[in-house]
Predict the 3D structure of the following.
Amino acid sequence: MRSRLTIALTGALIVGCGGKAVHVSKPWTPLAGVAAMTAEYRQFIDYGRTPSRVLDFVEKRSSRFRVVDVHAATGMRARPGDRLLFVDRNRTAVFVVVGKQPLVTGGAHVLGAHIDTPSPRLAPQPVDETAQTTLKAFRYGGMRTHHWVHVPLALVGRVARASGGTVDVEIGLHDDFALYIADTHKGLRVTVSSTPTAERLDGVPPQTLTALLHARYGLTPADLQAAELYLVPKHGAREVGIDRQLIGAHGQDDRVNSYAAWRAVIDVAGTPQVTAITWLVDREEVGSAHAVGGRSRFLELVYAWLIRAQGTRVTEAALDRALARSVALSADTPAAVNPNWAQVHELKNAPFLGRGPALFPFTGHGGKGGGSQARAGLVEAVVEAFASAHVPLQFGELGRVDEGGGGSIAKYLSHRGMDVVDIGVSVVGMHSPMELSAKADIWSAYRGFRQWLQQ
């Protein structure tokens, strides 16, 4: 059955997608098929270059969800079928479809995925009117610096004005120029201009980053000390291969699973028996240790809000019961077999592109340390959900014994008492400026996640 399904999906995937401009405020519409999903996913990746921009995209396209302040002390009630959205610092979000069973007795089905990705960050160095030909950047997450040499780059992020308020910044993303990292011998030095600041070329003042930021956004050099600026590849997502079966883009670890998890929860049909939750988190690539990461207490705050809104007194025991009766999928990105480096995998237990999302019953490295292990009953429930959705699922392991390994936010969900298993769309070229994923795998993940949330 799986081989016939793969063939059917492949036939459907030949339809290309148009590179239309992103309209972030587009209202919710159900996915009509693989072509519609591909077009939306490319827009999601192209717009969502930073965690904040990912949340901007999904919030404005989740029109059926009511935004709720988790700290608001109101008498608001949560009734079965309600669709609620909780956002913290514009860096983490919890999507909730309230189920028929109260949270304390039925728990929830939780999908967790992270929206940060390895890439350089512009260092918060003092910037004045001198020496702006190059600026310094630092590594974020498990990126390999040599991947970023000679790649056309853009600067994207958010700046807090000294006078108040924030400004979203784009430099080079849609301009006819690019920024550039020439080498990494003395750290990440970003080429911004080639003209020394003190010189004039044919009587024209030199073009500097501060001058451009002031002309475009009214920012001053002092404002850059309070900035979150990401260096990202200038190129956008594209279809790869003559048959257009693959998507090539930066940031698919783990935004490919974030997209599938978000789309699955907003497309949940009707009112599920138990509450359906998708949690998008930041900072996973650096250990999840932040107020907006997987170790934060934000999920507990949302649970407490829901327990209270369902008419139950919030106590530590009630919160612990609701968490312990929940089950979770950590939707993270494993490395698929790269033909150039097949030796780092155990090929009988390795994920391949195009064979469906990969389920990992246990993670970790060096004897599976620092990872998590799923209960057999939960693994069977996930397999059943994907079978009910008529999409393929493959089993895998994170690299050859003592060669690979890794973790996700699964262990932080399990620390809360949840049963949890790792599953996700695989990519080739993980943590590089151009990762590859298979359209069929994204579609299968979306269908399987949605079925699991509502079954």
